[in-house]
Amino acid sequence: MSTPHLVKTVPPGERGLKVLRRSNELCSPSLSHPYPLVVSRAEGCYVEDVDGNRFLDFGVGAWTVGLGYCHPEVVEAVKAQAERLIHYPQDYGYTELYADLVERLVSLPPWRFRRRGLLTSSGSEAVEAAMKMARWHTRRPKILAFTGSWHGSTAGAMSVSSRSSVERRHFYIPAQEAVLAPYPNCLECPFGAEAGECDMQCLNFLEEQVLRRLLPPEEAAAIIIEPVQAETLVQVPERFMKGLRGLSDEHGIPLILDECWVGLGRTGRWLAAERWNLEADCVCLSRGLSSGLPLGALLSRESLMDWEAGCHQSPYGGNPLSCAAALATLDVMEGEHLVGNASTQGLKLLRMLRELCESSEILANARGLGLAVAVDVVHEGGAGRLARDLMLTCFRRGLIVSLGGSSTLRFTPPLCVSAEEVETAYGVFEESVRDLESAL
Question: What is the pLDDT of residue 381?
Fold first, then answer.
């Protein structure tokens, strides 16, 4: 596929429109579609729709293909595995690939203690399994989580999530399972503190109010937190994360890090937790693990993963095709030094966006770690609507970015993205920003 500049026709074209109409008639309305994109094929950082339009994808398939689309080594690994064994359920037998992948994953830093792993069919299942395991181990009922987080779409994962009211309304999620504390958001401090002038009110509130008045530590089975919230790419301050680890140790509450979105190189480290030299009791992984095939992983201290046989079955978890794709993905990431590339190209993109914010009337708060970069749209007349307009303007010009929160635009290209592709994406984005500003 050749590198695109602008799309040929305003999407959706004639073929795409037919697919959209069929899908809207046949498929569940619960599926959200931010753009009228009907994908035909993809390669590297680019996707092509059924009408021949090409797009530079800085949304990277909702972060599910961190390596980039259809890397030849991944494609060959999946083809070869499909000829040998497509599937065999792990709860009825063993496969070598399953053990190979778990061995690779538990060797990731920054862990000092011996680890075990469970492969699942999704990130939601990995989170579910982590909470079940913690409850089984501690014999405690409740989970401490944080506002604004997104841990998955299954009922248990939803009980500790609060990204959007749409995802909870009318589902009668059992509130007694979880206690939600304010997420330590330094951009919009829930306690009104200014960045740089904070004495960790969020951590003090957690210790003095939540654990003393709302959730007795002897009832807490686990603490679960996103070190970087996927929805807005706000990251936990180092002081808070280390303080949270201290509370976890003091009260014997296992600490679960949900890195399903940002793990495996996305932040310029194998795991985001490396930036704080933090060792969690559990880590959940999924997106980016297997280059688009369904797979999740729960990695845990061996002493915590002590539940008995039959406690958690996953018929499709660790599917051989997904494992083959994941092993090839890890090989490519190491061989092509993609974690380092994520750090280098992410810094380049972040620097350009920060400079743009200084001269823009509608952008603020450029932030990011590695290739998880975001910027907020700000406008008194309605930032959310303007953010969506900006996202769609970029899309019509051949650049895919994603909308998070109410008015955050996220840039999450494949880890293989080049400096030239970063510059191309920035050029499209800057032009789109200026056009919208001139129309205000």
Answer: 84
As given in the structure block, the two tokens for residue 87 are 């599937």
Of residues 170, 171, 126, 178, the one with CA closest to residue 151: 126
Range of the domain at 298: 73-335
Residues 167-176: pLDDT tens digits?
A: 778 877 765 5
- Residue 93: pLDDT band (50, 70, 90) is very high
- Sequence letter at residue 358: E
Q: What CATH number does residue 413 fall under? A: 3.90.1150.10
Q: What is the 3-state secondary structure (H, E, C) of 66-135?
A: CCCECCHHHHHHHHHHHHHCCCCCCCCCCCHHHHHHHHHHHCCCCCCCCEEEEEECCHHHHHHHHHHHHH
- Looking at 335, 370, 393, which one is the last position of a domain? 335
User: Tens digit of pLDDT for each residue in 381-403?
Assistant: 899 999 999 999 999 999 999 99
If asked whether residues 273 and 355 sit together in one domain, one would say no
Record the tokens describing residue 130, joined without a space: 């982590």
* Residue 137: CATH number of its domain: 3.40.640.10
How far apart are alpha carbons 284 and 315 in whole angstroms? 18
Task: Clarify whether residues 329 and 341 are in a common domain.
Answer: no
Element (H, E) at 376: strand 372-377
98 & 183 share domain: yes
> Which among 163, 248, 234, 268 has a CA at the least distance from the CA of 203?
248
pTM: 0.95
pLDDT of residue 3: 42
Same domain, 244 and 362: no
